[in-house]
Design brief:
With about 350 residues, this protein is of the alpha/beta class. The chain has a domain of about 60 residues: Beta-grasp domain (Ubiquitin-like (UB roll), Roll), CATH 3.10.20. The protein is about 40% helix and about 20% strand. The strands form three sheets. Strands 2-3-5-1-6-7-8 form a seven-stranded mixed sheet, sandwiched between helices. A three-stranded mixed sheet has the order 4-10-9, with helices on both faces. Strand 7, helix 7 and strand 8 form a beta-alpha-beta unit. The longest helix has about 30 residues. It is flat and about 65 Å long.
C-alpha cells in the first residue's frame, strides 16, 4: 500500500512526512519511507506465541519533489515528472496550510487549487485518448472497445462538471480504466495542518471553521510540527507526551485507519512459533485469493482455511481453547475473509 503526500508549497508536506515515516531514502525525485501499520492485535499475538519474527503490515509514504501543484500554466497541465512519480500510488494525502490563522491562509481554497490540477491532468488524458480513438477509426483501424469509450466519456463528463472520478465508485473501479491510473479515481484524504494551539480543539469544529471538507473528501486536522516532535521522542515517552498535549492518537494511526477505510482494506493474521504476521487485503476477498497474498502456491493448491477470530483467540488464550469452545471452523473456496481472522491455510501442490 502506497500513499503520496501532495499539496502546495509551504503547506508542511515534508514535516508531515517526517512525522509519519521519520527516516527516508531518496529515489527519482521522491522522498520515500516505510512505516509499520499499528495493530494491537499483532502485538497481542506476539505476546501469546513469542515467535521468532513479527511482521506488521506496511505503508509506504512518499513525497514528490516536482514543482507541480498550484502554479503551472493550466494549458500545460501537471509536470509529466510529477505524474510519473505518483502513478503507482494507491491514495493521496493532500496537506493544506491552516497554522497561520484566519486571513493568512485558506485551506478550502488550497484544496480546490490542487484538485483543479488533478482534474485537469485527467481531462487531458481522456481527451487525448478519445482523439486518438477517432483518428484510428478515420484511418480504418478497428474501433476501441465500446465499453472503454463509454467509461472514458462518463469520466470526462464527471470532470467537466467539476466532480472527481472517485465520486462514481462503480466507474472508478471499472477494469477498462485501470490502465489510465487516473489521479482523481484514487482516495484523497485532506490533512489540515493546524497550529499547536489548536490541537485540543474539537476536530469537527476545526474542519467546519475552515469551510471544509471540499467535495466530501475525508478530512482531519493535525499539527505536523508537533507530530514530528512526538515521532522524534523515544517510543516509551510518546504516550505520556500525547496525553500531556491532549492528542488522542498519533497522526500515523489516524492516517492508516482512514487510508484503510478509503481503500476498502482489511487485515487477516497468521500465527505460529516462527512468525506472527498481518496481511493486507481488499474487503470482500475470498479465501483462495487471500492465501495467494501469503504465497502463490498456497492459492494454487488451496484446500481449506482453518479460521478463528482474533477476538475469540485473545479472549480464550489459545488455539486449543478456541477449538474446545467450538469456535474454530473450516472454510472453503467461497469464504469471504473478515477483518481480524486468524487463518491457517491447508493446501497441496
Amino acid at each position: 500500500m502506497k500513499a503520496a503526500i501532495i499539496g502546495l508549497a509551504q503547506s508542511g508536506k515534508t514535516t508531515l512526512f517526517h512525522a509519519l515515516a521519520g527516516t527516508s531514502r531518496e529515489k527519482g525525485g521522491l522522498t520515500m519511507g516505510t512505516v509499520e501499520v499499528p495493530d494491537p492485535r499483532v502485538d497481542k499475538l506476539t505476546e501469546m506465541y513469542r515467535p521468532k519474527k513479527t511482521i506488521h503490515a506496511a505503508l509506504d509514504i512518499v513525497e514528490a519533489h516536482a514543482p507541480s501543484l498550484g502554479g503551472k500554466d493550466k494549458a500545460q497541465g501537471l509536470d509529466p515528472a510529477f505524474l510519473n512519480m505518483v502513478k503507482p500510488m494507491d491514495a493521496f494525502l493532500l496537506v493544506v496550510r491552516a497554522f497561520d490563522g484566519e486571513g493568512l491562509c485558506d485551506p478550502a481554497r488550497d484544496v480546490r487549487t490542487v484538485l483543479d490540477d488533478l482534474v485537469l491532468a485527467d481531462q487531458m488524458v481522456i481527451e487525448n485518448r478519445l482523439e486518438r480513438m477517432d483518428l484510428d477509426v478515420r484511418k480504418g483501424k478497428p474501433p476501441a472497445p465500446a465499453e472503454e469509450r463509454k467509461a472514458l466519456e462518463r469520466a470526462l463528463e464527471l470532470l467537466n462538471d467539476g466532480n472527481l472520478i472517485l465520486n462514481d465508485p462503480q466507474l472508478a473501479s471499472q477494469h477498462v480504466l485501470r490502465g489510465y491510473a487516473f489521479l482523481t479515481a484514487r482516495p484523497i484524504l485532506t490533512v489540515v495542518n493546524i497550529a499547536e494551539g489548536q490541537v485540543q480543539n474539537d476536530p469537527a469544529t476545526i474542519i467546519e471553521s475552515w469551510g471544509l471538507p471540499v467535495k466530501g473528501l475525508p478530512t482531519f486536522p493535525c499539527c505536523a510540527g508537533l507530530e514530528k516532535e512526538i515521532h522524534d521522542l523515544p517510543v516509551q515517552e510518546r504516550g505520556e507526551f500525547l496525553e500531556a498535549m491532549g492528542i488522542g492518537e498519533p497522526v500515523l494511526d489516524v492516517v492508516v485507519r482512514r487510508t484503510y477505510a478509503a481503500l476498502g482494506l482489511i487485515s487477516f493474521l497468521t500465527v505460529g512459533p516462527d512468525e506472527v504476521r498481518a496481511w493486507t487485503i481488499r474487503d470482500g476477498t475470498k479465501a483462495p485469493a487471500g492465501a495467494g497474498t501469503v504465497h502463490s502456491d498456497i492459492e494454487r493448491g488451496f484446500i481449506r482455511a482453518e479460521v478463528m477470530s482474533y477476538d475469540d483467540l485473545a479472549e480464550l488464550g489459545s488455539e486449543a481453547a478456541v477449538k474446545k469452545a467450538g469456535k474454530a471452523r473450516l472454510e472453503g473456496k467461497d469464504y469471504v475473509i473478515r477483518d481480524g481472522d486468524v487463518i491457517n491455510f491447508r493446501f497441496n501442490v
